[in-house]
Model the fold of this input.
Amino acid sequence: MTSTETTQPEPTTGQLDLPVRVHFLGPVMLHLASGSVFGDTRACGYGTEVDVTEELLRANDDRNGQSWLRTWLLSGNDTHSSGGQELVRRGPWPEDASRLQPGSFEWEDARDRDVKAAHQIDDPAERAARRQWVQDFYGAAPTTSSTLFTEPGQASR
Done:
């Protein structure tokens, strides 16, 4: 019986000019080191930026030398979506955008801190301006109550 050695083709980066900076809009796991079965992964969430290098591409390749990351970058598309959710965009995080994901626990905590800080301001005009800034930046306060049941025929209030 003879054995033939098979080798996988070396993955290519095509026309990629590495490193490529990307930022995340949703949860994505990236492997940071190739050859590691269990370790060196990073959970990238909303607002995270990563410089994609050849090493990072190799770490995320499967046994056939392909990965969603490599395929997406080679496609030339500016965004990568999965399950109808936009997860990654090319380029750095926009300077004027908050890294707090609206509706997240961190967003709610930051909003609460800013509201409390606004209420601590003694000057009424300055306090009103700060409260308006909170309203403009975070939007309306989250609803704290809801109607679970309404009797048929009753008008809602």
About this structure: Strands lie at 20-24, 28-31, 41-44, 49-52, 79-82, 85-90. Helices lie at 54-60, 68-75, 105-119, 124-138. The first helix runs from residue 54 to 60. The chain has a mean pLDDT of 87.
